[in-house]
Amino acid sequence: MIRFSNEEGFIKSKGIHFRENQDSIVLPEIAVGVFSKELFNDVVEKFSCNEVGYIKNANYERNVYVMNYKGNLITFFMAGVGGPNIAGDIEELSVSGVKKFIIFGNCGVLDSTIEDCSIVIPNEAYREEGTSYHYVEASETIEVNPKYKEIFKEILKENDFDYREGKTWTTDAFYRETKDKIEYFKNKGVLTVEMEGATIAAVCKRLNLEYFTFYYAGDNLDGVEWDQRSLSGKDMIDKKKEVMKLSLELTRKMK
Q1: CA distance 244 to 36
Q2: Residue 20 resides in a domain
Q3: Rounded distance between C-alpha atoms, residue 4 and residue 191, angstroms
């Protein structure tokens, strides 16, 4: 059982690590984080991106960029996988100036009618990870995306994207996505399974930050056997690059 405390944390974030002579930079207030290395590298290659610092973990670093998208400056980062990593990203980037987050990536689907690489917008997350319980009090679920859903739906319509909206299941033990659990959450009306949704919602709620998170469908768990579909980062990459553009377009309308 996780013990919740409403006190401030004993260890406080000092922000991201800046490169030499850049520690006075205040990051743009809107940040886009993507979990896919392929999509991250594609954006850095194609757009005007200035590498200003990095998020440091015990055994690796992830660069943080300021990018120019259609005249708007955006903080751009490769999001850390799993609740603890994405919570740390949000904490450190917010200290460095970010106030609004768009974070997106792949998810598993519990409904085989959700097409590969199609868009899913979560509105509620079942909390089966640990990190969210340190940010908000215990509950079975947490609201996701209280803001920006309608704006994002307009962008999807403009770009001819179909989507589904519904509940998600956030877990930090993907090898324990068992058949009985899948059936349990399907019966609850859950559409997707992923590793960060509940954490993003809890951390942003605790820190009074605005955010929007969404998924593009990947592996299918709604069958006799697991179907990987386009889970590999390079599969259906052109379609995924179109999804990347959706997040960038949303930055222009986040007011």
Answers
A1: 10
A2: no
A3: 28
Determine the structural domain holding residue 101 and report its residue range: 25-251
Domain membership of residue 10 (yes or no) is no
- CATH code of the domain covering residue 104: 3.40.50.1580
Q: Look at residues 151, 163, 166, 167 and name the one whose alpha carbon lies nearest to residue 243.
A: 163
Q: How many domains does the chain have?
A: 1
Q: Could you report the per-residue pLDDT of 203-244, keeping only the tens digit for each?
A: 999 999 999 999 999 999 999 999 999 988 788 999 999 999
Record the pTM.
0.95
